[in-house]
Amino acid sequence: xxxxQKRLTIPVSWPVARKTxxxxxxxxxGPHSSQESMPLLMVIRDMLKLVDNAREAKRVLYEGKVxxxxxxxxxxxxxxxxxxxxxxxxxxxQYRMLKDEKGMFYLSLLEPGSARKLARIENKTVLRxxxxxxxxxxxxxxxxxGDYKVGDSLVLSIPEKDIDERxxxxxxNLAMVVGGKHSGQTGKIKDIIKVKSSQPxxxxxxxDKEFETIEEYVYMIGTDSPVIKLGAAR
Length: 234
Prior knowledge:
Distance between the termini: 38 Å
Oligomer: single chain
GO molecular function, one term: rRNA binding
InterPro entries: KOW (IPR005824), Rib_uL2_dom2 (IPR014722), Ribosomal_eS4 (IPR000876), Ribosomal_eS4_central_region (IPR013845), Ribosomal_eS4_central_sf (IPR038237), Ribosomal_eS4_KOW (IPR041982), Ribosomal_eS4_N (IPR013843), S4_RNA-bd_sf (IPR036986)
Keywords: Ribonucleoprotein, Ribosomal protein, RNA-binding, rRNA-binding
Organism: Methanothrix soehngenii (Methanosaeta concilii)
Family: Belongs to the eukaryotic ribosomal protein eS4 family.
Number of helices: 2
């Protein structure tokens, strides 16, 4: 299997030029699929423009100058996906990866200080001793007690990833869409339609306009207001 891919074949969600060179790094296996993430090298080179080329990017990473969710990362192919937090300690800056209304990734500049991570519960597993393991959208797992449900979002501290808050997947709470033609839009859930077939469940969201999307694209981001900043990078 190739360790690179042609720039012309990259996902439409990558906000990079497609004809400047032939090859780009291919994401390593990780918490996000290759279609829903970007390699860390391209985030710091092409989006943040901290370096001019891949060699400089690898050097910056090797020296531990870039944090992902509060931890130093040296793998230049590490997949960076929705809601991941990129930290630059030397510049005292932090960014959150989000998607805009065109379905393209962008980095939201966070306020100085501690940041928190948002992750969705993808499924639950009951372990020996009746312990509950939550499997999250960022690839991490958490042991937790309580009435957690698939589709709920957790607000996590970083780098510890302790659970600070739970946002329920229910009617009336605030949601953000991260895929499809309504990508980047936010609004309150008006209805959740459970489909008794192989088709995905549907969610009706009321924002500036009312629209419908599938459950897979919906992330809970708050009750009355977002718990994370959603603005674009400066």
